[in-house]
Specification:
This protein is an alpha+beta fold. It is about 30% helix and about 25% strand. α14 runs parallel beside α16.
């Protein structure tokens, strides 16, 4: 007989499976592990006297995951006869698991206050990868020889079995702290603890601290100095719900092993005043350096600070650094409401990955590539790959590099659309969908090929005021009134006409009079709205394309009429939601398509997505699951173009 544990998980990554496998190996429990669609099934020998102890450890230390939705258990007749194997072909960048976090603060541990702590199933391991196969010689740790205890740990079953980057204070990485007046080093528990105590006090004293974390450089400073490019780091878990208005799922997501950045509602009035908004992007400490800094700040009574991703040249009062090469990834930004969740953007956790059915081609999109490996595709940064023999190359448009004699180009919107088709195995089924990343486009998949039905129209600001003035009779007076009544906004729009790199939502933010002149600024403004419905903004098409001039003219008209920027920002996304639904419904009727697909980062907007959910309630759209919904998924969809 076998005890069967089934985990329901959307992620195709192996870290949760590996964590349980490592514990079963530690307790010498034979088991068979299989993957079936969105399930991972563990069949364990029920007669093993250590099974109960192993299951108790799993229950106590298994990391919470964004993608782990439920579990169940039963008995069956299977009889496992050997230990399950770990799947450690490539590393990921994850938060620290409960076991590593406990060890980090255990004074008897060899890794007490050691910021590089990790195991085979957690931590910033991918940041130190230089190439494949994944082994120490192909990492930044290649010149650091593990001590006898770490070497023995790597040979022993458990969470650090075959851990490529295993190290501790005895064989680890020295770290230096440099300020304008002093320099200190840390290479043991006492000196590391002192370093983080000093760093925390510096932030309390309004200093800017630049830290080379295991996820790359981060700049930390007091929350009161927050600005639009920063996130809030929530330090004290017990105080999170005092400061943030979260649903249970949001709270769990913040503390999950994936440690995403999330756009959430603020509760604390001081936080609202600092952000000048009801919402903000927040995060909970994830890797060793950030967790230890947060621990010392918490001792000083600090509940949150500001931080932003940075680089080595960033101006700071104090710098914490070390002599290992680190290749950071963009943080995962996770979208979540009561009904839906998906990855909005970022690289962490999604890449690298071994997923989807293989094709004998290479896909190239920016710095990422997808290559066939066995019967699946392997996606990772191109710099980690050697040459590969394939029948052809699919390359993101505008890439001038020649990768193969048979090279085919694709657009980002087409590829992101096809990524959804591939993830949900919609091959052979007719689908219509929309892509929204600055500019909307509409696509159709006929079961074999993806076609742009309404291509994106680049926003051209070079003559935008004249275009608005020429829209219809009386439109010239609209521009004249804008110049007279809102001269600052008019001047900014006039200045945009001299640039060629302007995005639509930069112009929208300017018309709304926002300080953050970006899509993010408009989104944050929209989240201040607490009413039941907005007003209709002109989102009609002209010559089968989105009409930017009419769209902006409509907003300007309401602005001159005294409508608040909050109502306008909300109404923009509400109107876009109706616009997308109207076009998609028309396309579905004409093409006899069976499914809706949504992709593009701008759909990760609560106001817009809520409208889309309402409009598509009877026919919920398909979206990416394991990959971001935006341009990062282009390398995935590029395989199937």
């Amino acid at each position: 007989m076998a005890f069967v544990l089934t985990l329901q998980t959307e992620s195709k990554q192996a870290y949760i499976k590996n964590y349980i496998t490592a514990i079963l190996r530690e307790y010498e429990v034979n088991a068979t592990v299989t993957r079936q669609d969105d399930k991972v099934i563990f069949e364990m020998e029920s007669e093993n006297e250590k099974l109960q102890e192993a299951l108790e450890k799993v229950a106590k230390t298994l990391p919470a995951s964004l993608f782990l939705t439920s579990s169940s258990n039963e008995m069956n007749m299977a009889e496992p006869t050997q230990l399950p194997e770990l799947d450690l072909a490539y590393p990921l960048n994850l938060g620290l698991c409960p076991s590593c976090q406990k060890e980090l603060f255990d004074v008897s541990s060899r890794r007490y206050y050691y910021p590089f702590i990790s195991c085979s199933c957690c931590g910033g391991n991918y940041s130190f990868l230089n190439g494949y196969p994944y082994k120490r010689e192909n990492s930044s740790f290649k010149f650091i020889r593990p001590c006898e205890e770490c070497e023995a740990e790597m040979q022993k079953v458990g969470l650090r079995e075959r851990h490529v980057l295993n190290s501790c204070h005895a064989c680890g990485v020295p770290v230096r702290m440099v300020s304008k007046s002093s320099e200190r080093y840390a290479n043991d528990a006492g000196s590391f603890r002192t370093m983080f105590e000093v760093a925390a006090k510096a932030i309390v004293d309004k200093k800017r601290l630049l830290v080379k974390t295991t996820f790359g450089y981060r700049l930390f400073y007091q929350a009161e100095a927050w600005h639009k490019d920063a996130n809030f780091l929530m330090i004290n878990a017990s105080k999170i719900t005092d400061n943030l208005a979260l649903i249970t799922e949001e709270f769990n997501a913040l503390l999950s092993i994936e440690r995403p950045v999330m756009h959430v509602t603020l509760k604390d009035e001081k936080l609202k005043a600092i952000a000048d908004a009801n919402t903000a992007y927040v995060k909970y400490p994830d890797e060793g350096f950030t967790i230890l800094l947060a621990t010392e700040l918490q001792k000083l009574g600090v509940e949150y600070i500001a931080y932003e991703d940075a680089d080595e040249s960033c101006d700071a009062d104090i710098k914490i650094d070390y002599d290992l090469e680190v290749s950071p990834q963009n943080d995962m930004r996770f979208f979540l409401n009561k009904d839906t969740h998906f990855i909005a953007e970022g690289e962490r956790v999604s890449f690298p990955s071994l997923n989807l059915r293989a094709k004998n081609i290479v896909s190239v999109a920016g710095e990422y590539a997808g290559i066939p490996q066995g019967d699946m595709m392997f996606f990772d940064k191109m710099e980690h790959f050697d040459s590969v023999s394939v029948m052809g190359a699919h390359v993101l448009e505008d890439d001038t590099e020649r990768y193969h004699e048979k090279q085919k180009y694709f657009a980002a919107d087409e590829a992101s659309f096809m990524a959804v088709v591939a993830e949900h195995n919609l091959f052979g089924r007719k689908c219509v969908g929309a892509y929204f990343d600055e500019e909307p486009s509409f696509l159709y998949y006929d079961g074999k090929n993806v076609l742009r039905i309404v291509p994106p129209k680049h926003f051209d600001s070079s003559n935008i005021l004249d275009e608005i003035a020429a829209l219809r009779e009386g439109s010239d007076r609209l521009v004249e009134n804008l110049k007279k009544q809102l001269p600052d906004i008019y001047s900014k729009l006039e200045a945009l006409q001299k640039r060629d790199d302007v995005k639509l939502f930069e112009a929208v933010a300017i018309v709304l009079g926002l300080s953050d002149e970006s899509m993010k600024g408009v989104s944050v403004e929209a989240m201040k709205f607490v009413g039941k419905g907005g007003i209709q903004i002109d989102t009609h098409v002209k010559d089968n394309r989105f009409d930017h001039a009419a769209f902006l003219a409509s907003i300007i008209s309401y602005q001159l009429a005294g409508v608040s920027s909050v109502i306008l920002a909300y109404s923009i996304f509400e109107s876009f939601g109706d616009y997308f639904y109207e076009i998609l419904s028309e396309l579905k009727g004409k093409t006899k398509a069976q499914e809706f697909i949504l992709c593009g980062t701008h759909f990760a907007n609560q106001s817009l997505f809520s409208r889309m959910q309402r409009n598509l309630k009877l026919t919920p759209p398909y979206m990416s699951k394991n990959y971001p919904i935006g341009k990062e998924s282009a390398v995935v969809g590029g395989v199937y173009i």
